[in-house]
Amino acid sequence: MPDANLLGTEGKGFVHLMEHLPLERISIAVAAIAAARAAYEWTREYVFERKAFGKPVGDLQNTRFVLAEMLTEIEVTQSHIDRCVLALNAGELTAVDAAKAKWWASELQKRVVDRCVQLHGGYGFMMEYPIGRAFVDSRVQTLYGGTTEVMKEIIGRDIAARPA
Ligand SMILES: Cc1cc2nc3c(=O)[nH]c(=O)nc-3n(C[C@H](O)[C@H](O)[C@H](O)COP(=O)(O)OP(=O)(O)OC[C@H]3O[C@@H](n4cnc5c(N)ncnc54)[C@H](O)[C@@H]3O)c2cc1C
């Protein structure tokens, strides 16, 4: 292979990979919050169309509470991710903050999509509905790019390394 084709520094491939992990992890967090919001929006529309016992399921208090919980959790998480993206753009996003954003947002996506499936009833289990597909897609998010457990290990190591 000609020298001109060398990417980065010879013998430093692993280091280069490590340097880009925060970018990969914040990208997954951004995708996670976008997917959670999309699932929430599909569900919000669905529950006010779907009627059970003569009225939209969106008029049931439980449905509104679940929507309220999801929207609050999405908005709070979105604010944090926006802050991380600004830090990334400024070259200041740490590996630990990227790990926090990745595990939190991907676990939130799973929780939100699961509740959205529940509010869709039986239709939520059908691939014809985007929410059914979103349920399957959400499952990988806490695995690739480093599992939730490994993210917590990175954060935990940093906490343990701090002077008391
Ligand atoms: C669709 C998909 C695409 C992928 N794309 C890529 C890619 O492009 N490039 C790439 O390099 N990799 C890729 N991966 C691999 C992915 O990063 C790994 O699957 C992931 O990091 C988990 O590693 P593992 O599968 O070896 O699981 P394991 O390490 O075997 O983990 C099994 C279980 O043990 C837990 N565990 C492992 N270590 C610890 C620990 N120290 N403390 C606590 N718990 C622990 C895990 O959290 C998990 O629950 C992809 C995976 C998938 C599913």
CATH superfamily: Butyryl-CoA Dehydrogenase, subunit A, domain 3
Stated plainly, the CATH topology is called: Butyryl-CoA Dehydrogenase, subunit A, domain 3
Query: How far apart, in Å, are the first and last alpha carbons?
Result: 51 Å
SS elements, strand count: 2
What is the number of helical segments per DSSP (H or I, 4+ residues)?
6
The percentage of residues in β strands lies in: under 5%
Small ligands present: flavin-adenine dinucleotide
CATH architecture: Up-down Bundle
Arithmetic mean pLDDT: 96
The radius of gyration computed from the alpha-carbon positions, rounded to a whole number of angstroms, is 20 Å
The CATH class assignment is Mainly Alpha
Sequence stretches where pLDDT stays below 50 over 5 or more residues: none
* Assembly status: single chain
Kindly describe this structure.
The chain is elongated, with a radius of gyration of 20 Å. It is 70% helix and 2% strand. β1 (51-52) and β2 form a beta hairpin. The chain is mostly helical and 164 residues long. The chain has one domain (19-157): Butyryl-CoA Dehydrogenase, subunit A, domain 3 (Up-down Bundle), CATH 1.20.140. The chain has helices at residues 13-19, 21-49, 61-89, 95-120, 130-138, 148-161, and strands spanning 51-52, 55-56. 29% of the residues are buried. The protein has a two-stranded antiparallel sheet with strand order 1-2. The N and C termini lie far apart (51 Å). The structure holds flavin-adenine dinucleotide. Residues 140, 143-147, 149-150, 153 line the site of flavin-adenine dinucleotide.
